[in-house]
Each structure stands twice: as structure tokens, then as C-alpha cells.
Write a structure and sequence with these properties.
34% helix, two-stranded antiparallel sheet, Cytochrome Bc1 Complex, Chain D, domain 2, mainly alpha, 13 helices
Length: 349
């Protein structure tokens, strides 16, 4: 290479180096103000943090575990894969969960918030304690497909996690109990209680509901509040809401857990908080809009197995205007502060 070529090469190299993209700077996420919350007028939660005492280190560990695909068999799927913050930790545009090896589940991923008030978890109530709830999707062969023991081995082999467990629990030894307690700190502190409707009820910031929203609220109280009770907007009971059974899946719902024919096709009543953001709807994600949901409830077939008594007379008497007003009210249940809370964001982005 002659002298002129060397000069050209060095000049080009300097130009390239000067144009190199700066490395991505990941700002540390806030994790302060971590306290147990019981909003005014709400019942006491079922789960308290009296034993699993709240700490920033446990929360940060729980957040890391929630977003880390290391919890799945092939390290490709995390809890955050199917529970995305911008849709209240539901799964945007997916009827049912998507798991490892492109496997497709049978049920819709529900939103995650106010979990410490839930007496039972999963659509069929198959989990009875928040601290063991993550084990269900982790071990489900259609979701994360992992055995907990190899997961613990992977975490124990990670210097990052050994250090995080040491900070959170005073020991580098990774145990399933500490793992799940850390995840409970993260998920259990996902409180959603600052929607427009909440501000209206608390008389904060001079927030008022529009005429349509008020009409919708009154219609809601008449037609929906029995199952979707304020302030959590669920009674957490199990009901058959008249959905036609999908013969390809034949999901028997609560009967799968209790073996009782009286529970066939019954599913847990979901909370309606943030409902405008958590489409698609129902346990199998068959409806894409709130309009479709209300159309269903206004025309329920009366001869379905274990149909809830509240729906026996062909469903709810709702006019087209009624449905529009109820949807206007349901939109007031979106908690934008919760959806944008950086404490719950993926620490990797």
C-alpha cells in the first residue's frame, strides 16, 4: 500500500470513527415511594406485605425477574412478553397467550393490577395465593414451559442474580420462595386507582363526568354492578356469561379445578378497570371491541349450561344508545398514570 493510499485509509477510518453511533444510555428506573396502598373507601386487601416486607431491592429483583426470559425453558419468553404495561399489563392484539417454540395457549392474558385484592388467580381460579401465581405460567407447557428447578439453577449461575438476591434477602442462595416473593413485590405494588372516574369520585382536580359518561355510569349501576362491583369492578366470583363454547378447545373453566359440574364453563369475573386498553376480551379473547361485548350481553341465548341467573331473560336490555353511554363510562376507568408509571417499565429499555 503506497503512502497516498495509507493516508486515504486513515482519513476514512477517522471519519467512520467520528460518526459512530453513541452507545445506548439506559437511565435507572425509579423505584422509590414503594408503599402498600389502600385507597380511601376500598376494602382491605387479602394479601398484605406484613411478612414479605417491602424493600426497594426486592422490588428491583422482582422487576428484573418479571422481564427476564430466563424464567422460560428456552430463555425466550418472559412474563412481560404477555403482560405489557401500555395495555395495563395485558397482551395487546393477541387473543390468547403465545409461548415458547411458537406455541399458542388457550386463554387470554388478563391485565395485571390491584392483585393483592384477588382471592384466587387465573381464569379458572386454579391458584390461591399471589406468591405462587407465577409458577402457573412458568410451568405451563404452552407458555413458558419450564420446570422450576432448572430455572433456579440458571439464576444461581448468574452473578447478576446472585448479587441481587444478596441485596434483597441477605443471601446469594437463590430459592423459589425468595424468587416468588420478589415477584410479588413487583406485581403486588401495581396499584391502579387514579382514573378519571376515581378523580371524579374523590372530588379531585375538579374532574367531572360528561353527560354521556354519567348516563353510562347509571346504566352500569343498573345492569353491570352486581358482577363488576365498585371499587375493584369485580366480585372475583366465577360465572358462565353465555359465551358459545369453542368446540376446538372446549375449555370447561372452573370445573377443571373443582371437578364440579356446577362450575362447568364458569370463569372468573374480570375487573373492568383499564378495560378500554386490554382488548381483546373474554377468557379466550374472542371479542375485539367493547361494542361486541355489550352486543353479546344484550342477546344471550337462554339454554346454555350453568348460565348466570342474571342473564336468563335473553341478556341485558340495552339499546344502541345505552351501549354507547356505557362505553363512554368504561373509558373513564383508564388509569393513564398507572400505564405510564416508570417504576413498572422494563428495565432493559
Amino acid at each position: 500500500m503506497n503512502k497516498f493510499a495509507i493516508i486515504i485509509f486513515l482519513f476514512g477510518f477517522l471519519i467512520f470513527a467520528s460518526c459512530k453511533v453513541d452507545p445506548k444510555i439506559i437511565e435507572p428506573l425509579p423505584s422509590d415511594n414503594l408503599v402498600e396502598v389502600v385507597p380511601l373507601g376500598w376494602p382491605q386487601p387479602i394479601y398484605s406485605f406484613s411478612v414479605n416486607t417491602i424493600s426497594e431491592d426486592k422490588f428491583v429483583l422482582g422487576r428484573a425477574l418479571f422481564y427476564d426470559p430466563i424464567l422460560s425453558e428456552d430463555s425466550t419468553i418472559s412474563c412481560g412478553s404477555c403482560h405489557q404495561q401500555f395495555v395495563a399489563f395485558a397482551h395487546a392484539d393477541h387473543n390468547v397467550s403465545h409461548g415458547i417454540y411458537d406455541r399458542v395457549g388457550t386463554r387470554n392474558s388478563p391485565g395485571l393490577f390491584n392483585l393483592t385484592w384477588h382471592p384466587l388467580f387465573m381464569h379458572d381460579g386454579g391458584v390461591n395465593h399471589i406468591e405462587v401465581q407465577p409458577l402457573a405460567p412458568i410451568s405451563n407447557t404452552l407458555e413458558m414451559g419450564a420446570n422450576i428447578n432448572p430455572v433456579i439453577v440458571k439464576l444461581q449461575a448468574s452473578s447478576k442474580y446472585r448479587n441481587m438476591f444478596l441485596k434483597a434477602f441477605g443471601t446469594e442462595v437463590v430459592s423459589s420462595q425468595n424468587m416468588f416473593r420478589a415477584m410479588t413485590q413487583f406485581m403486588g405494588l401495581m396499584y391502579s386507582y387514579n382514573s378519571k372516574f376515581d378523580l371524579y369520585k374523590r372530588r379531585e382536580n375538579n374532574v367531572e363526568l360528561s353527560d354521556a359518561e354519567l348516563r353510562g355510569y347509571n346504566l352500569f349501576l343498573t345492569n353491570c354492578n352486581t358482577c363488576h362491583k365498585e371499587p375493584l369492578f369485580s366480585d372475583f366470583d366465577f360465572r358462565s356469561n353465555g359465551l358459545a363454547v369453542n368446540p376446538l378447545v372446549n375449555d370447561i373453566g372452573r370445573e377443571h379445578i373443582t371437578n364440579s359440574p356446577q362450575d362447568k364453563y364458569k370463569f372468573k369475573t374480570p375487573s373492568l378497570r383499564n378495560i378500554a386498553k386490554t382488548a381483546p376480551y373474554m377468557h379466550d379473547g374472542r371479542f375485539n371491541t367493547l361494542q361486541q361485548c355489550l352486543d353479546h350481553y344484550a342477546n344471550v341465548k337462554p339454554n346454555l349450561i350453568n348460565l348466570d341467573p342474571l342473564l336468563l331473560n335473553n341478556g341485558l336490555p340495552l339499546s344502541s344508545q345505552d351501549k354507547q353511554d356505557i362505553i363512554a363510562f368504561l373509558n373513564t376507568l383508564t388509569d393513564y398514570k398507572f400505564l405510564a408509571d416508570k417504576r413498572f417499565a422494563d428495565p432493559n429499555y
